[in-house]
Write a structure and sequence with these properties.
Layout lengths: L3 E4 L3 E3 L4 E7 L6 E6 L6 E6 L6 E3 L7 E6 L4 E6 L8 E7 L9 H5 L6 E2 L3 E6 L1
Parallel strand pairs: 2-11
Antiparallel strand pairs: 1-3, 3-8, 4-5, 4-9, 5-6, 7-8, 9-10, 9-11
């Protein structure tokens, strides 16, 4: 069982930048970030493959957010630039129990494919 702990969320103004971190207690494979706004379903934000060489983004954040990882530290990051009020929500990192879980892009977007979840970190963007 891998424990995931997110950090870095806070209140910022529109246009600001913020970096989220997700520290894992052990080895991880592909990892993803999701977010959930009040009254809305959890949505995919970004994902990264085990080596960090391939990344995936939701259309709403592409060009503004960057996902990266430091496998030596078992940590995944989400750099968020040009933040907008609609980016407000609780951000969760997640990972699968086994390698090879994701065979296509749509797999990364599906929260059912992920087994481990952090407790979430709140990001609030004021206008």
């Amino acid at each position: 069982q891998v424990q995931l702990v997110e950090s870095g969320g806070r209140l910022v103004q529109a246009g600001d930048s913020l970096r989220l971190s997700c520290a894992a207690s052990g080895r991880t494979f592909s990892m993803g970030w999701f977010r959930q706004a009040p009254g809305k379903e959890r949505e995919f934000v970004a994902a990264i493959n085990p080596t960090g060489g391939t990344t995936y983004y939701a259309a709403s954040v592409k060009g503004r957010f960057t996902i990266s990882r430091d496998n030596a530290k078992n940590t995944v990051y989400l750099q968020m630039n040009s933040l907008k009020p609609e980016d407000t929500g609780v951000y969760y990192c997640a990972g699968p129990r086994r390698p090879g879980t994701f065979l296509r892009y749509s797999d990364y977007e599906s929260f059912e494919k992920y087994d481990y979840w952090g407790q979430g970190t709140q990001v609030t963007v004021s206008s």
